[in-house]
Description:
Blueprint (H helix, E strand, L loop, with lengths): L2 H24 L16 E6 L1 H4 L9 H9 L3 E5 L5 H11 L5 E7 L2 H5 L4 H16 L4 E5 L8 H14 L2 E3 L21 H15 L7
Parallel strand pairs: 1-2, 1-3, 3-4, 4-5
Helix pairs in contact: 3-8, 4-6, 6-7
Amino acid sequence: MKVSNYKLIQETSLSAIIFVSFFLVFSGCGKREIANTHSNGKNIICFGDSITFGYGVDSKESYPVFLGKLAQRTVINAGIDGDTSTEALKRLESDVLSRDPFLVIVEFGGNDFLRKVPLVETVRNINEIVEKIQAKGVMVAITDISAGLLMKEYRLPYKKIAQEKGAIFIPSIMSGIITNPRMKSDFFHPNDTGYSLIAERVFHSIKPYINKD
């Protein structure tokens, strides 16, 4: 074989390897799968603080209620106004794990931010919450409530937890709401229109993993 032909084969093989590697990364083949998609539970549980609770609106206008209509499944609102991630850990068993969860949507961080809880502590708590839920064979989704510069430091750590643990990541559920007075009941909390939009965003992210049979 001529040297020139040998070099050509080498270059072609290298190009093929680069192409395949590029394809695997960007086609999603290298992504980690969502854990516990075959969860045996029955209920979707929205586990969070005032955003989940539905502060500022009637109980029938909270995002979990809207989500239940979209998902056509039983959705339990396990949101408590003012809860931090530390307080959430304390009630995880009674409010979530004991209620036959199929999927748990985790939404915390706002009160940690307001109370100046160190970010490393919040991230550690969220990580532990996810681990404990998954240990029961249940799917988990992590919501990102950052909006623009507000709480932007939480965005990447939450996404990293989701990627490492195989949880669903739901980005920017408050985007376009926090800056729109027509979608809020006060300075921070959504009104019924805002909560309806949050439900749509959550549903869009979890829809591929819901078994409607």
